[in-house]
């Protein structure tokens, strides 16, 4: 995995990562259906101010003008994952053509629940083929909706399909978002070959540090300013 895929924080002076180090792991996220272009422009400005790794937005918000050093992530097959592989692949390819550096795709969670892991792997592989390296591919598995067995199997399928990260959650599923247990299980299964992104419900610096200690190498956060200690949370992710 390249430095562009998994940023390395500045060495810490304490046992816990500092707020600045946590910031460099954050995908500053806005995926609300009612989001406007003005909202996304404000997101980019805030991301630059806070020193986060990237912004994560819906594909119809591209292309974006971002300052040097700020990456652009986009979701794919979001939030249900119930799109055909061909549609996901086309959506991902268009996003990259429009400037996305990273793609966060949603699996067919129902296929994982049924144990159809080969189908899950094929779905991921189709998107990977459409957006080869250096594009970073993250695979959203909705860990809160899966058994431990399925989390492990889908994480392995993601690795076999050539993904760069496994990611806990969309933040929109009623089963919930990231958990320390799921992050640890995913990291034990695929790290260090793949990164692990904790997303959904990570709202405080303490929660972020817990996820990093469990093995998260990236964090999906909408209320980044509040998490880092600079103001109220935006909510919604």
UniProtKB/TrEMBL annotation:
Q: In which pathway does it act?
A: Carbohydrate degradation; 2-deoxy-D-ribose 1-phosphate degradation; D-glyceraldehyde 3-phosphate and acetaldehyde from 2-deoxy-alpha-D-ribose 1-phosphate: step 2/2
- Molecular function terms in GO for this entry? deoxyribose-phosphate aldolase activity
The subcellular location is: Cytoplasm
Q: Which branch of life, at top level?
A: Bacteria
Could you list this entry's UniProt keywords, alphabetically sorted.
Cytoplasm, Lyase, Schiff base
Q: Which CDD domains match?
A: DeoC
Q: Which reaction does it catalyse?
A: 2-deoxy-D-ribose 5-phosphate = D-glyceraldehyde 3-phosphate + acetaldehyde
**Primary place of residence?**
cytoplasm
Q: Which residues form the active site?
A: 104, 167, 197
Broad enzyme group: lyase
| Coiled-coil regions listed | none
| Any one GO biological process | 2-deoxyribose 1-phosphate catabolic process
Quick one: a GO cellular component term? cytoplasm
Q: Which EC numbers characterise this protein's activity in its record? A: 4.1.2.4
The job of this chain, per UniProt, is described as: Catalyzes a reversible aldol reaction between acetaldehyde and D-glyceraldehyde 3-phosphate to generate 2-deoxy-D-ribose 5-phosphate.
Family classification:
Belongs to the DeoC/FbaB aldolase family. DeoC type 1 subfamily.
What is the protein's given name? Deoxyribose-phosphate aldolase
Q: What is the lineage of its organism?
A: Bacteria, Bacillati, Actinomycetota, Actinomycetes, Propionibacteriales
């Amino acid at each position: 995995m390249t430095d562009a895929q998994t940023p390395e924080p500045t060495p810490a002076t304490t046992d816990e990562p500092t707020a600045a180090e946590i910031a460099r792991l954050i995908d500053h996220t806005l995926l609300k259906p009612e989001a406007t272009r003005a909202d996304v422009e404000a997101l980019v400005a805030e991301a630059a101010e806070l020193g986060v790794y990237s912004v994560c937005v819906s594909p119809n918000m591209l292309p974006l003008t971002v300052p040097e050093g700020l990456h652009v992530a986009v979701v794919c097959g979001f939030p249900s994952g119930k799109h055909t592989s061909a549609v996901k692949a086309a959506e991902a390819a268009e996003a990259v053509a429009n400037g996305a550096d990273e793609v966060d795709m949603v699996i067919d969670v129902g296929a994982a629940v049924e144990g159809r892991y080969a189908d899950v792997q094929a779905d991921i592989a189709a998107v990977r083929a459409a957006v080869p390296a250096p594009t970073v591919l993250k695979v959203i598995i909705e860990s809160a909706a899966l058994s431990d067995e399925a989390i492990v199997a889908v994480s392995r399928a993601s690795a076999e399909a050539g993904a760069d990260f496994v990611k806990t959650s969309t933040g929109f599923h009623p089963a919930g978002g990231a958990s320390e247990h799921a992050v640890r299980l995913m990291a034990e299964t695929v790290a260090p070959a793949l990164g692990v992104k904790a997303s959904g419900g990570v709202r405080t610096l303490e929660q972020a540090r817990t996820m990093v200690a469990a093995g998260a190498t990236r964090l999906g956060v909408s209320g980044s300013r509040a998490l880092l200690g600079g103001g109220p949370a935006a909510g919604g992710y």
